[in-house]
What we know:
By secondary structure, the protein is of the alpha+beta class. Helices cover 31% and strands 44% of the residues. The protein contains 3 helices and 4 strands; from the N terminus they run βαββαβα.
Amino acid sequence: MNYYEHTLVARQDTSPSQIKQLEDKYKKIIENNDGNVVKYESWGLMNLSYLIKKNKKGNYLHFKIEGNGKTIKELEKTEKIDKNLLRFLTVKVKKLDLETNYFKKSDEIKK
Length: 111
Protein backbone atom coordinates (compact mmCIF):
# COMPACT_ATOMS: atom_id res chain seq x y z
CA MET A 1 0.00 0.00 0.00
CA ASN A 2 1.09 3.53 -0.78
CA TYR A 3 0.50 6.68 1.25
CA TYR A 4 -1.08 9.81 -0.19
CA GLU A 5 -2.04 13.27 1.00
CA HIS A 6 -5.09 14.52 -0.86
CA THR A 7 -6.43 18.07 -0.62
CA LEU A 8 -9.73 19.37 -2.00
CA VAL A 9 -10.78 22.99 -2.42
CA ALA A 10 -14.56 23.42 -2.37
CA ARG A 11 -16.46 26.54 -3.39
CA GLN A 12 -16.66 29.39 -0.87
CA ASP A 13 -20.47 29.28 -0.67
CA THR A 14 -20.53 25.62 0.38
CA SER A 15 -22.50 25.18 3.62
CA PRO A 16 -21.16 23.15 6.57
CA SER A 17 -23.70 20.40 5.85
CA GLN A 18 -22.50 20.22 2.23
CA ILE A 19 -18.89 20.02 3.48
CA LYS A 20 -19.90 17.04 5.64
CA GLN A 21 -21.59 15.44 2.61
CA LEU A 22 -18.42 15.93 0.52
CA GLU A 23 -16.33 14.38 3.31
CA ASP A 24 -18.63 11.34 3.54
CA LYS A 25 -18.85 10.98 -0.25
CA TYR A 26 -15.10 10.91 -0.78
CA LYS A 27 -14.41 8.71 2.26
CA LYS A 28 -16.87 6.19 0.84
CA ILE A 29 -15.19 6.30 -2.60
CA ILE A 30 -11.78 5.72 -1.01
CA GLU A 31 -13.01 2.80 1.11
CA ASN A 32 -14.91 1.20 -1.81
CA ASN A 33 -11.69 1.15 -3.86
CA ASP A 34 -9.42 -0.72 -1.41
CA GLY A 35 -8.27 2.45 0.35
CA ASN A 36 -8.26 3.64 3.93
CA VAL A 37 -8.64 7.18 5.28
CA VAL A 38 -5.99 7.39 8.00
CA LYS A 39 -6.78 10.98 8.97
CA TYR A 40 -9.19 13.71 7.84
CA GLU A 41 -8.81 17.43 8.51
CA SER A 42 -11.11 20.30 7.62
CA TRP A 43 -8.92 23.36 7.24
CA GLY A 44 -11.87 25.72 6.80
CA LEU A 45 -12.39 28.76 4.61
CA MET A 46 -9.16 30.37 3.41
CA ASN A 47 -8.18 32.96 0.82
CA LEU A 48 -7.02 31.75 -2.58
CA SER A 49 -3.90 33.21 -4.18
CA TYR A 50 -5.86 34.05 -7.32
CA LEU A 51 -9.44 33.85 -8.56
CA ILE A 52 -10.57 30.34 -9.46
CA LYS A 53 -13.93 30.19 -11.24
CA LYS A 54 -14.78 33.65 -9.82
CA ASN A 55 -14.08 32.56 -6.21
CA LYS A 56 -11.74 34.48 -3.89
CA LYS A 57 -11.93 31.91 -1.07
CA GLY A 58 -12.24 28.16 -0.76
CA ASN A 59 -13.07 25.52 1.85
CA TYR A 60 -10.11 23.18 2.24
CA LEU A 61 -10.51 19.47 3.03
CA HIS A 62 -7.43 17.30 3.59
CA PHE A 63 -7.28 13.50 3.57
CA LYS A 64 -4.35 11.29 4.54
CA ILE A 65 -4.92 8.08 2.62
CA GLU A 66 -3.49 4.59 2.51
CA GLY A 67 -4.29 2.99 -0.83
CA ASN A 68 -3.14 2.18 -4.33
CA GLY A 69 -3.23 3.78 -7.77
CA LYS A 70 -6.73 2.47 -8.48
CA THR A 71 -8.04 4.24 -5.37
CA ILE A 72 -6.62 7.60 -6.46
CA LYS A 73 -7.72 7.15 -10.07
CA GLU A 74 -11.37 6.58 -9.05
CA LEU A 75 -11.23 9.44 -6.54
CA GLU A 76 -9.91 11.95 -9.06
CA LYS A 77 -12.30 10.75 -11.77
CA THR A 78 -15.24 11.60 -9.50
CA GLU A 79 -13.75 14.94 -8.44
CA LYS A 80 -13.30 16.13 -12.03
CA ILE A 81 -17.07 16.20 -12.55
CA ASP A 82 -18.06 17.54 -9.10
CA LYS A 83 -19.39 21.10 -9.48
CA ASN A 84 -18.77 21.94 -5.79
CA LEU A 85 -14.98 21.56 -6.11
CA LEU A 86 -12.59 24.16 -7.46
CA ARG A 87 -9.34 22.17 -7.30
CA PHE A 88 -7.81 18.98 -5.93
CA LEU A 89 -4.28 17.75 -5.45
CA THR A 90 -2.85 14.34 -4.62
CA VAL A 91 0.71 13.90 -3.41
CA LYS A 92 2.34 10.52 -2.85
CA VAL A 93 4.42 10.46 0.33
CA LYS A 94 6.78 7.91 1.91
CA LYS A 95 5.15 8.15 5.33
CA LEU A 96 2.21 10.04 6.78
CA ASP A 97 2.74 12.81 9.33
CA LEU A 98 -0.16 12.24 11.72
CA GLU A 99 1.17 14.48 14.50
CA THR A 100 1.34 17.94 12.92
CA ASN A 101 -1.82 19.96 12.38
CA TYR A 102 -0.73 22.94 10.27
CA PHE A 103 -4.02 24.82 10.20
CA LYS A 104 -5.09 24.54 13.83
CA LYS A 105 -6.84 27.70 14.98
CA SER A 106 -4.88 29.80 17.49
CA ASP A 107 -7.52 29.46 20.23
CA GLU A 108 -7.35 25.65 19.95
CA ILE A 109 -3.56 25.70 20.39
CA LYS A 110 -3.82 27.47 23.77
CA LYS A 111 -6.09 24.78 25.24
